[in-house]
Write a structure and sequence with these properties.
By secondary structure, the chain is of the alpha/beta class. It is built from 13 helices and 24 strands.
Length: about 525
């Protein structure tokens, strides 16, 4: 087959066949078949918006066509296949244990099970069916289950998010392709295989996770819920066992730590056990809501009705050198109470597959570094906790909320205007100026007007701000060597919580990478 890039089609037509034939100077009837590799939107000129395709095409007289057209945009289709290390499966002293069933843990388990390793997956939260009920009850009653919530439970934090799968990671081993193939095999829409900004959506992702779990079980894996690892047993710098729920001891010489970015008590336990870790920079801020219709109009102009809900990505550097950027943008979605500790409040964004809610929302966050919170390995966690405690106190347990114009004036809002907040969990009007230190407040107030020059209306007074967005990424790195092990042999840090990923796809890819580490050893 021939790979053809930069095949442009006006969105009103959206059929690449004629444009493809024209690109490679052949007639349409010379094309046998084609496959979409990538599809994106070029909206730089809002009078003429294009879908841009990358395609693999099968044609008659392929060698002649390729010879006449060979260029940066036309070339022989490369082989893009993932291969697990072709090593004979070796017998371990005990089944590998994976801590956490988020994307990192699930995909590590999937690859290990697929290759005969019979992993055991320990999840501190509930399985999907029960977890959904627990989270919905929390939204209604504000009564938190610290072990089963938006952060903890089968599927991880990504299960209650937009289900975004885009990543900028270079993928020369095609782990990302393997991730997407597994998603599609287990019920995700096939379009994620070629969309430039693929997403599954919370509603669809939940079903896919259950299918992945069941597939792992059929391949020999086992799942244990409400099972928190509370201690490690180590002899001569080698793991020999683990403790579960402060009582059950399990022999274990291979342990994957796919614990997620919010397992703060587990981080402390690991540090106490001598696992090497260090503090990591991250970002904190607010989540901002606008009408999705306004975002669509800004991004696509009069063609907005012909296109899916628009997203955006914004960045700014303050006069003092701090980065401010949009994060986890959720078109047509909700802002959700994503708390996981009593007396502390954190938020996140969430969209369903169709992204058909009235509001767009995105985190607008400010970078914070070890200069702000200290060098101690868990200093970033304490920084997060203090912000979350303030947020909980300000909102009296509800999501703190303020209109942008009132935020600039230091005035508590009294009611919503054109933008009515769309949340999972109740809100309380407060003055968000009381939540952050000055360097974060000043950074937000400097950046948001700039973002208004990029998206018309972004800084309008009745835009809604909510806080606190504090879980953008892990504040910790669990150190691992070139073979994936921590300083304690047999312990494999993995995924976003360990500091090696950021988002569903990269976490899943790192899970696959850790499965490879285990197989190679």
């Amino acid at each position: 087959m021939i790979r053809v890039r930069q095949v442009k089609v006006l969105i009103e037509k959206d059929n690449p066949l004629e444009a493809l034939a024209k690109k490679i100077n052949i007639s349409v009837n010379q094309i046998i078949d084609y496959k979409i590799i990538r599809k994106s939107i070029d909206a730089r000129d809002k009078n003429e918006i294009f879908y841009v395709y990358e395609l693999d095409v099968s044609v008659y007289h392929e060698k002649d066509v390729l010879k006449r057209n060979r260029s940066l945009d036309v070339f022989l289709s490369p082989k893009e296949e993932y291969h697990f290390p072709s090593l004979e499966c070796h017998k371990l002293e005990s089944n590998p244990v994976i801590v956490g069933s988020g994307p990192a843990g699930l995909f590590c388990a999937y690859l290990l099970a697929e290759n005969g390793y019979h992993p055991r997956i320990l999840e501190r939260g509930e399985k999907m069916e029960e977890r959904i009920k627990t989270v919905e009850e929390f939204f209604q009653t504000n009564v938190l289950n610290p072990n089963s919530n938006i952060q903890f439970g089968e599927g991880g934090a990504g299960t209650f998010s937009d289900g975004k799968l885009n990543t900028l990671v270079k993928d020369k081993f095609f782990r990302g392709k393997k991730v997407f193939d597994i998603f599609v095999e287990n019920g995700a829409p096939e379009e994620i295989l070629y969309q430039a900004k693929p997403h599954i959506g919370t509603d669809v992702l939940r079903k896919v996770i259950v299918n992945i779990r069941n597939k792992i079980i059929t391949m020999g894996g086992e799942f244990f819920y409400s099972s928190q690892v509370t201690n490690l047993f180590i002899e001569n710098q080698q793991l020999v066992g683990i403790e579960v729920n402060n009582k059950e001891k399990i022999p274990c010489n291979v342990l994957v730590l796919a614990i997620g970015h919010s397992a703060r008590d587990t981080f402390q336990m690991l540090l106490d056990c001598g696992i090497s870790m260090k503090a990591k920079n991250f970002a904190v801020g607010i989540r901002m809501e606008h009408l999705q219709e306004m975002i669509n109009k800004s991004q696509y102009g009069d063609k907005a009705s012909l296109l899916p809900p628009a997203s955006y990505k914004l960045t700014y550097q303050t006069k003092e050198g701090r980065g401010v950027y949009s994060f986890c943008m959720c078109p047509g979605g909700f802002v959700v109470n994503a708390s996981s500790e009593k007396g502390r409040l954190a938020i996140n964004g969430m969209s369903n597959y169709h992204r058909d809610e009235k509001n767009a929302n995105s985190a607008i966050v400010v970078t914070v570094t070890k200069k702000d919170f200290g060098e101690d390995p868990l200093a970033g966690i304490e920084f997060q906790r203090k912000l979350e405690e303030k947020a909980f106190q300000l909102g009296k347990g509800l999501i703190p909320c303020q209109l942008y114009g009132d935020f600039l004036k230091g005035k508590v809002s009294s009611s919503f205007k054109s933008v009515v907040s769309n949340t999972k969990g109740n809100v309380s009007f407060v003055d968000l100026n009381l939540l952050f230190p000055d360097y974060i407040l000043n950074s937000l107030k400097e950046a948001i007007p700039y973002f208004g020059t990029k998206i018309k209306g972004f800084d309008q007074d009745d835009s809604v701000l909510l806080g606190v967005e504090s879980r953008t990424s892990s504040p910790v790195i669990i150190v691992r060597d070139e073979m994936g092990e921590a300083n304690i042999k047999g312990v494999y840090p993995c995924g976003e919580g360990a500091g090696y990923a950021g988002g569903i796809t990269t976490a899943a890819m790192d899970g696959i990478k850790v499965a490879e580490f285990i197989a190679k050893k």
